[in-house]
Amino acid sequence: MTLQPRAEPGCELCGLAAGTIPSGAQAVFEHDKFVVILVDEPNYPGFARVVWRAHVREMSDLDDEDRLLVNDAVYKLELAVVDAMQPLKVNVASLGNVVPHLHWHVIPRYADDAHFPAPVWAQAMRAADPAVLASRRALLPQLAQAIERQFTAR
Known about the structure:
The chain has four helices and five strands; from the N terminus they run αβββαββαα. By secondary structure, the chain is α+β, with helices and mostly antiparallel strands. The two termini are 27 Å apart.
């Protein structure tokens, strides 16, 4: 059963879901049940999240229709990331250990990124090349357009 939208005191993603976007981040698509955000992550241009608006902890808190909706949103976001960013790999993760609010990370990965092949939350293995990061940041307007296309296509 899907819980009614509510904010949980102290939950940083409840603020995001309600439209309080942190400096540098960008809401690129808004649905009444979720928001798609480009995260301001300097070493990972194209890092994005799907954040469920209602404060729920787990996928199992959603009814079937909403579970399919959020899965479809993650899928569409991944398609947009692949289209615009041309990564070697895309990491899709929903950990929620630190922030127990349903959200998915969609992260373009490259062999030369700071952590590859380890997760982005691991110890960095190398410094990322600033010129390469700048060229990837230059793709962010195309990523925003690709996200819009994915979410508005019928």
